[in-house]
Amino acid sequence: MMSFQAYLNNVEAKTGKSADELKAIAIDAGLADATGLAPGVKPGAVIDWLKRDFDLGHGHAMSIVAYIKGKRS
């Protein structure tokens, strides 16, 4: 089983963007805020965006959703 950090490392290798950078882009897009997902935004909307714009698979997209929501390990 991959560690959470391994998922984040793989996301960065695939997209060229760190989890922090993806969170900032999600905030700019109105999908997230400093505390987590933006009000009314469901995780699926963020997953769909990451799959569409960054070609991430479901598991890697979920790791970014978890990161946005505050998971760090």
By helix and strand content, what is the structural category?
A: mainly alpha
| Radius of gyration from CA coordinates | 11 Å
Percent of residues in beta strands: 5-15%
Biggest beta sheet attributes: 2 strands, antiparallel
Question: Which blocks of ≥5 consecutive residues have pLDDT under 50?
Answer: none
Strand order of the largest sheet: 1-2
What's the order of the H and E elements? HHEEHH
Overall mean pLDDT stands at: 97
DSSP helical segment count? 4
Question: What brief labels describe this structure?
Answer:
2 strands; 73 residues; mainly alpha; two-stranded antiparallel sheet
What can be said about this structure in brief?
This protein is mainly α.
Give structural notes.
62% of the residues lie in helices and 5% in strands. It has one domain (4-68). The mean pLDDT is 97. Strands 1-2 form a two-stranded antiparallel sheet. The chain is mainly alpha-helical and 73 residues long. Helix 1 crosses helix 4 and helix 3 (43-54) packs across helix 4. It has helices spanning 4-15, 19-28, 43-54, 58-68, and strands at residues 32-33, 36-37.
Task: Chart the SSEs and their pairings.
Layout: H1 4-15, H2 19-28, E1 32-33, E2 36-37, H3 43-54, H4 58-68
Antiparallel strand pairs: 1-2
Helix pairs in contact: 1-4, 3-4
